């Protein structure tokens, strides 16, 4: 029997998809629009599921190789290494898929490309960098490994290893109220900062899918963004699959209240570009029912369904599902945590370490006894998107292979006593309650007021089972972490425990068993007595060792993770106290920070500080290799480390330009700058040469290892436009090169930068523009340690004065306004948040203009005034009364201009809160 064309690999892919579409009924097509795509048995088409987590190794499906967290992989600044980690992860996904196709799908939900704008973001560990270009470069490398792109030929593979999905589109850096907050993205921030992170992986064809984010952007849910079709799909060389985030489609009616009914919302989502609904887990029927209702009500046409199904099928074809064989059919369990992947995990961890400070203590020499100290000294943590550790080499274990070690967890051992008696733990791990003898508990401080208690009797952590306190968990874990508590002061030195996950207090039942209660007045008042001070023990052991290594940091599931932002950058207070005490006891102290985000600490005279993200299964071996100098610390920071959260704008302020945020605009002196990282040797820079030829900036500089040992340098190139119509970044990363040099060895590093890359988004014409302007090229070791610079002139264009029409969202500056959706489908507008709010349009040519028309609306009515030169005292040019309208209703309100000739800086002043403006146009009088 002859095979249908869609099963013939020799038939062009678009024709194969067309063939399947012709054979499918409308009902069968609708069945393909859910995460769990229904099989079409009459055509021999099986079930298919989107979504396997593979952020830094295969996750959630059992033991598999665990690599460093994404922000740690990024700190290597090594494209090829990141690609190899992606390749290893892709092969392990394939192995699980071949064993259980239903459990491990080949559409992987990685990498995360949201620029790390604010280090307090709970998901900071998932991203790569605060720089969008560096993010895109590293994301493309990881996706290239996942999908199997031929790195030598640079061409897309005929068959994908896996199908990578970029997360999360768009403007997503807050967990606080993430489903209801709207990210304000002015046009320049959108086009210069947010969108570029997505571009390279999509344009290169290595990321074949995208997931929108939970939040709204400029008032419109990201899942309904017109940019999906207008920008993302315009970049993609092939079909781009768009999958929803989990349960996000349902948010469109509640809590977002953007549509009144789910058929209406789902129809809008499909038309906006959503192809796959991740809703209700594997229970697809409700979603499919709403899509059928949308079709029946005329909200959705079969052509809309066909477009979505085409994208869904394209991925399956490119994964080789309908081919007789693929290059990956022989991949099996032997690759999972194989020796090669273990070695790669060790290499990635070793090369990710960043040496933040060093007075010569490192690398360690003549050391026979090390005190390993800290909550993270003998523990490896799994984050929400990591795999299950197949084994764990902790800091203690890794260092113990090199010399004698003593260990101190450095946590307080305490007793808890209620008025009715001491609190005891059930030796079998059951309920906690009032007993005859006090139980002993170890107290862990994870920062942000989050504490965990571990029973000394059982070695298990206190958790909540239903409403009862038990001690049966290995540590904080799960989507809803139920093992952490806050301590609230009560009279006479007592405290109450408040369960963080539920917000309930710890009380006692009639039989004395501890349980959760809603009312704070029912909380048990507990006296906490320290039996053994972790700080004092740490100092004692540190004083008896040649070197003290304090391993401190965060727990990836506590005080900063998905659903939870951090409020502070500070290291947990108890851990910080341990660092100070150990440093006082032993001047040869190394602080080893392990965290998914930047931290601050109070001990300023530490001789050496080393940072890495949570490094996966080989962390301890990698740490030992760096501490003892087997390898040069290669890592460099991909984020600014600020001195305090006080230096940051509001968490929800996405306008990095106006708020002077990220290394590009920050004017302060950071704790550690973007790109920072020390070596065990020294480097000299010389001979910077710059020339422009054929619209390409070519630069080269010579780097020499001036030290006595081999070393690794990450040479970083930055530019700054010195004159411009608009506010320009102080510096912007344009390229980097990682070089390994022997003592005395020199290497010439080069940069080739197309002049077009120097463009910025011109709000007056809604396009990129390269201005005629002088620029400075800088090269060095970090964003602030710049060793050489050279000036060059770009012969670009000058931005002419504006004549209108003026889009309200395309202004130059603003105060007290919010970006909102002009309509539910497309366009941006602005809304005033206070009386006297304003937007500024620079250099508006009003020559010959005598009247203007504003397209505006307000549910309460209002007034808009045009002023020249100043929002408060500038001469008024026109006043518009804004009538009451419905939310998306606009009136075209006309006014005559007074004394408006020539080129003006035009302020649009909102005299009332809640006025929405879409745009202003000008004309000559009759």
UniProtKB/TrEMBL annotation:
Signal peptide: none
InterPro entries, per the entry: Actin-crosslinking, BXL, CBM6, Cellulose-bd_IV, Fn3-like, Galactose-bd-like_sf, GH, Glyco_hydro_3_C
Keyword Signal: yes
Top-level taxonomic group: Bacteria
Keywords of this entry: Hydrolase, Signal
Domain Fibronectin type III-like: 713-783
Gene Ontology BP terms: arabinan catabolic process; xylan catabolic process
A Gene Ontology molecular function term of the record: carbohydrate binding
Positions of the Cellulose binding type IV domain: 802-924
Family statement drawn from the similarity comment of this UniProt entry: Belongs to the glycosyl hydrolase 3 family.
Physiological role: Catalyzes the hydrolysis of a non-reducing terminal alpha-L-arabinopyranosidic linkage in ginsenoside Rb2 (alpha-L-arabinopyranosyl-(1->6)-alpha-D-glucopyranosyl) to release alpha-D-glucopyranosyl (Rd). It is not able to hydrolyze alpha-L-arabinofuranosyl-(1->6)-alpha-D-glucopyranosyl (Rc).
Protein name: Exo-alpha-(1->6)-L-arabinopyranosidase
Organism listed in the record: Nonomuraea fuscirosea
Lineage, opening ranks: Bacteria, Bacillati, Actinomycetota, Actinomycetes, Streptosporangiales
């Amino acid at each position: 029997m002859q095979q249908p064309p869609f099963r013939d690999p020799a038939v062009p892919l678009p024709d194969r998809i067309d063939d399947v579409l012709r054979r499918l009924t409308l009902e069968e097509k609708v069945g393909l629009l859910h995460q769990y795509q229904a099989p079409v048995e009459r055509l021999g088409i099986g079930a298919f599921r989107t979504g396997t987590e593979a952020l830094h190794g295969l996750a959630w499906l059992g033991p598999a190789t665990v690599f460093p967290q994404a922000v740690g992989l990024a700190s290597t600044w090594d494209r090829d290494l990141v690609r190899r980690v992606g390749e290893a992860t892709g092969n392990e996904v394939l192995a699980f898929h071949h064993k259980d196709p239903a459990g491990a799908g080949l559409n992987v939900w990685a990498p995360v490309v949201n620029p790390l704008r604010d280090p307090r973001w709970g998901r900071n560990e998932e991203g790569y960098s605060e720089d969008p270009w560096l993010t895109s470069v590293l994301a493309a490398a990881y996706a290239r490994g996942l999908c199997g792109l031929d790195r030598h030929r640079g061409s897309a593979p005929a068959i994908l290893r896996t199908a990578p999905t970029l997360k999360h589109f768009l403007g997503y850096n807050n967990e606080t109220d993430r489903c209801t907050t709207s990210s304000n993205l002015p046009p320049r921030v959108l086009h210069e900062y947010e969108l570029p992170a997505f571009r390279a992986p999509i344009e290169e064809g290595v990321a074949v899918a995208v997931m929108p984010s939970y939040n709204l952007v400029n008032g419109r849910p990201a899942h309904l963004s017109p940019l999906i079709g207008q920008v993302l799909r315009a970049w993609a060389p092939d079909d781009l699959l768009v999958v929803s985030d989990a349960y996000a489609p349902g948010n469109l009616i509640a809590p977002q209240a953007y549509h009144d009914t789910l058929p209406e919302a789902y129809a809008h989502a499909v038309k906006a570009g959503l192809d796959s609904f991740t809703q209700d887990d594997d229970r697809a029927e409700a979603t499919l029912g709403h899509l059928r209702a949308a079709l029946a009500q005329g909200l959705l046409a079969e052509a809309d369904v066909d477009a979505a199904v085409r994208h869904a099928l394209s991925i399956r074809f490119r994964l080789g599902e309908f081919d007789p064989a693929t290059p990956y059919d022989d991949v099996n369990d032997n690759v999972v945590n194989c020796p090669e992947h273990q070695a790669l995990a060790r290499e990635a961890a070793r090369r990710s370490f960043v040496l933040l400070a060093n007075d010569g203590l490192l690398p360690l020499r003549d050391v026979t006894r090390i005190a390993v100290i800290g909550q993270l000294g003998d523990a490896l943590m799994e984050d929400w998107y990591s795999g299950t550790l197949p084994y764990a080499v902790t800091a203690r274990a890794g260092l113990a292979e090199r010399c004698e070690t003593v260990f101190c967890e450095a946590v307080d051992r305490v007793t808890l006593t209620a008025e009715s008696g001491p609190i005891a733990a059930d030796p079998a791990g059951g309920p906690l309650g009032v007993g005859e003898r006090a139980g002993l508990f170890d107290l862990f401080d994870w920062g942000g007021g989050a504490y965990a208690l571990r029973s000394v009797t059982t070695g298990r952590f206190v958790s909540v089972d239903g409403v009862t306190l038990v001690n049966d968990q290995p540590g904080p874990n799960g989507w809803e972490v139920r093992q952490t508590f806050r301590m609230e002061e009560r009279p006479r030195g007592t405290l109450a425990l408040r369960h963080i996950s539920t917000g309930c207090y710890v009380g006692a039942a009639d039989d004395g068993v501890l349980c959760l209660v809603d009312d704070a007045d029912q909380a048990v008042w507990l006296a906490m007595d320290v039996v053994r001070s972790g700080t004092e023990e740490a100092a004692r052991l540190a004083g008896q060792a040649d070197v003290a290594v304090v391993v401190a940091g965060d727990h990836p599931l506590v005080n900063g993770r998905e659903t939870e932002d951090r409020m502070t950058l500070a290291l947990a207070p108890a851990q910080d106290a341990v660092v100070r005490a150990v440093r006082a006891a032993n001047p040869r102290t190394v602080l080893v920070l392990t965290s998914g985000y930047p931290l601050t600490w109070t001990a300023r005279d530490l001789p050496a500080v080393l940072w890495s993200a949570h490094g996966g299964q080989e962390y301890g071996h990698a740490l030992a290799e760096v501490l003892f100098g087997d390898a040069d610390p290669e890592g460099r920071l991909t984020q600014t480390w600020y001195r305090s959260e006080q230096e940051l704008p509001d968490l929800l302020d996405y306008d990095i330009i106006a708020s002077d945020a990220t290394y590009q605009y920050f004017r302060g002196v950071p704790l550690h700058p973007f790109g920072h990282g020390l070596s065990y040797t020294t480097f000299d820079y010389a001979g910077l040469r710059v020339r422009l030829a054929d619209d390409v900036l070519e630069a080269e500089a010579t780097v020499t290892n001036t030290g006595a040992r081999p070393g690794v340098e990450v040479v970083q190139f930055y530019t700054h436009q010195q004159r411009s119509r608009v506010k320009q970044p102080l510096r912007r990363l344009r390229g980097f090169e990682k070089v390994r040099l022997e003592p005395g060895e020199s290497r010439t590093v080069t940069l080739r930068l197309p002049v077009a890359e120097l463009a910025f988004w011109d709000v007056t014409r809604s396009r990129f523009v390269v201005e005629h302007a002088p620029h400075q090229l800088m090269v060095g070791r970090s964003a602030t340690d710049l060793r050489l610079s050279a000036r060059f002139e770009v012969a670009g264009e000058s931005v002419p004065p504006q004549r209108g029409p003026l889009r309200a969202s395309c202004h130059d500056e603003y105060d007290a306004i919010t970006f909102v959706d002009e309509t539910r489908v497309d366009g941006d507008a602005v809304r005033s948040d206070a009386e006297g709010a304003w937007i500024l349009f620079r250099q508006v040519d009003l020559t010959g203009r005598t009247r203007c028309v504003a397209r505006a609306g307000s549910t309460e009515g209002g007034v808009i005034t045009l002023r020249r030169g100043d929002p408060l005292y500038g001469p008024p040019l026109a006043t518009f009364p804004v009538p009451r309208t419905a939310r998306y209703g606009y009136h075209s309100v006309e006014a005559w201009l007074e004394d408006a000739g020539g080129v003006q800086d035009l302020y649009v002043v909102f005299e009332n809160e809640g006025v929405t403006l879409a745009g202003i146009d000008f004309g000559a009088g009759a």
